[in-house]
Amino acid sequence: MKYFLFLLVLLSSFPTFAQRRIEEVVKKEKVEVDTRFDINKFKTSCGKRELPFAIVGSLNYPPFSWIIEEQVSSRDTKKVLIGIGVDYFNHISSKIFKNSHHSSDIIVNSDEEISKSMLRGSADFFINAYYDNNPSLGVDYIFPSYLTNHMIVVLRKDDDKTKIEKVEDLVNYKGVIRSDEYTDWIYKGIGIDINFTDKVIIKNDSKEALTSLLKGEVDYFFTGIYSARAEVTRYKLFDEVKIIENSLKANRIFFTLSKMSKCRDYKALFDKAIEDDINDNETIKKIVLENILKYVEQFKDEPKLTVEKETTPPIQTNEEIAKP
Q1: What is the largest CA-CA distance in the chain?
Q2: Backbone angles phi, psi at 20, to 5 degrees
Q3: pLDDT (tens digit, 9 = 90+) per residue, 119-137?
C-alpha cells in the first residue's frame, strides 16, 4: 500500500519544468538554427553509425545515471549506463536525427576518469552536470537545462527537533550530502566552508548517507527529491525516515559538450532541440518516473537497510574493575 501511495505522491507533486536560463551566470547570444535540424551542413557525421555520440555520466547516481550488467550472450555480460540523463539524451537526439542517431556510453571507473575523457574529447557529452563556471573543465553547457533537481532534506521519522524550512537553516544542524550532489556554492552561499567544518560530511552514495542518518551521526540528509524517493523506496525505509518535500535549493541539470569533441559544432542543434522541448512536461515526467521505478525494481528483492545503533557500555564499578 505504501508503494502505491508513493507513486501517487510522485505523480501529483511533479514540478513544472519550464525553466529559465541562468542568464545571470552566463551571457549567451541568440543563435539562429535551422529548425529542421539540417545536419548535412556539418563536416562530421556525429550521431551516425560510423561516429556515434560517446556519452558519460555519473556511475552511481540513480535515478539520473547508474551502471547495470546487461547479458550479451549466455556467458558474457557488459556494463551499460542507464538513467534519466541517458533516456532524455536519446529523446533529444531522436528529434535532431529523426530516430536515426546512434549513441554509445563509455564506462569509466571514477569521476576523475570522466573529467579526463571530457577534457581529451574521448567522450562527447556528459549527461548530468551541475553548473560550474570553471574553464578548466573544458566543456560547453547545453542551454537550457533539461531538469531541475530540487534539493530537500530527509530526516529520521522520530526526530521532532530538527526544523529546516529554508536553506539557511542548515547551519543550525549537522548534515550529510552525497558526493554526486555536492556543489560548493550551496554551502558557501550560507557561509559554510566545507573544508573547515564538521557540520557537513560528504559520503560516496545514498546508502552511506542514509546509514549516517539512521545511526544518529547527523541530523539531516541533504539530497535531491528524485534521489530521495528512489533511495528511500529501494531501502524500504518508510517507517524510519521522512522526506520533507520543501525545495530548499534548485539545482539545474545540464548536458555538457567537450570542447575537444569532434561533435562540438552540434551544440547549437542541441540548444535548439532542448529549448523547443522544454515545455513538454509529460515527456520528462514519464522519463523520471520510469527510471525511479526501474531502479526500485532492480533491487526489489533486497532486504531493507538496517543499522545497529551504537550502545554505550555500562560503567564499571571500582570493585568490578579490580576483579582479576
Answers
A1: 90
A2: -90, 150
A3: 999 999 999 999 988 888 9
How many CA atoms are closer than 13 Å to the CA of 192, on its beta-carbon side? Answer: 22
Give the CATH number of domain 149-250; options: 3.40.50.970, 3.40.190.10, 3.40.50.300, 3.40.50.1100.
3.40.190.10
Model pTM score: 0.82
123-158 b/e (C-beta count within 10 Å ≥ 16 → b): bbbbbbbbbeeeeebbbbbbbbbbbbbbbbbbbbee
Q: Which CATH number is associated with domain 32-147+253-298?
A: 3.40.190.10
Give the span between the Cα atoms of 289 and 124, in whole angstroms: 27
Q: Per DSSP, which regions of the chain are E strands?
A: 53-56, 60-61, 65-71, 77-82, 103-105, 125-130, 139-141, 147-156, 175-178, 200-203, 220-224, 241-258
Distance of CA 7 to the CA centre of its chain: 20
How many other CB atoms are there within 10 angstroms of residue 190's CB atom? 15
